[in-house]
Specification:
Ferritin, globular, mainly alpha
């Protein structure tokens, strides 16, 4: 299985992140991301020209509109495999999102890049756990169609870091905090205890990932002298972010750094 080939000799982690983002082999992308050294020089100040081919994608799965994806019963092996495949696809996209935020935005504190490279490494682990468990059911990543919603938001926010932080970790990835418990319950009820264990690992790590998004969002709001709450509402409207849908995992969101004003607004939506 080939490793992702670096397009040139580089020493900074931001260049390495871009190389991995361009990789079209999902297994190699995950494996090589797991080995990223987050302690080396990120090359924070360098402006890197955007190449074509972002993000690198394997030939499969076929990407379709989310409305074309079939819902299947958790009582069948095929139904569980379909759900696990969808989760693996989300995690592969999450690798790309963390790598993209590292190379794309320059001039930030070194801890910014180290935080997101650490996120990429954990997302790679999540992908591998789900991929390997999917194999025990007789399927592989790429066997089912998938949708491209996460990356579409990355495209919309590629020119504004504040919008990226507001709408990817704090919106789309935060939805995973809400979705994880009911998804776990379905899989465990169907007898898939290993899937439940994997989702526990993912939820634990995703709380940390959303917390990183919250921390850097508030830091950048302070740098720009803007109010985090009104700015979030503006960004969500400007970039057509999906409206939050309950029920909300308020405990996990609180642990991930959402403040009481934000949680109260969600509670009003759920009421």
């Amino acid at each position: 299985m080939p490793h992702c080939a670096y397009h040139r000799q580089v020493n900074t982690t931001r260049h390495h992140a871009l190389t991995l983002l361009l990789c079209r082999d999902a297994d190699a992308k995950a494996r090589d991301t797991r080995t990223l050294d987050t302690t080396t020089d990120p090359g924070a100040a360098e402006i890197i020209a955007e190449p074509s081919g972002i993000p690198g994608r394997p030939a499969q799965p076929l990407l379709v509109a989310h409305t074309r994806l079939k819902q299947r019963s958790m009582g069948s092996r095929l139904g569980r495999a379909t759900l696990l495949h969808a989760l693996a696809h989300i995690e592969l996209n999450a690798i790309d999102l963390a790598l993209d935020i590292c190379w794309r935005f320059h001039g930030l504190p070194e801890d910014f890049y180290r935080d997101w490279l650490g996120v990429a490494r954990e997302e790679a682990l999540h992908f591998e756990l789900l991929r390997d468990h999917l194999a025990t059911l007789g399927f592989a990543y790429g066997d089912f169609p998938a949708h491209d919603g996460l990356w579409q938001m990355a495209q919309r926010t590629r020119h504004d870091l504040l919008a990226r932080l507001a709408l990817v970790p704090r919106t789309l990835e935060a939805r995973g905090l809400d979705a994880s418990p009911p998804v776990k319950a379905k899989l465990v009820a169907a007898g898939d205890l290993r899937a439940g264990e994997i989702l526990d690992i993912i939820l634990r790590d995703e709380i940390g990932h959303v917390a990183i998004g919250n921390r850097w969002y508030r830091w950048l709001c302070a740098q720009r002298g803007v109010d985090p709450h009104s700015t979030y509402a503006d960004m969500a409207a400007r970039h057509d972010a999906p409206r939050p849908r309950g029920p909300f995992n308020l405990e996990a969101r609180r642990a991930a750094g959402f403040d009481e004003t934000e949680l109260a607004a969600l509670a009003n939506i759920a009421a």
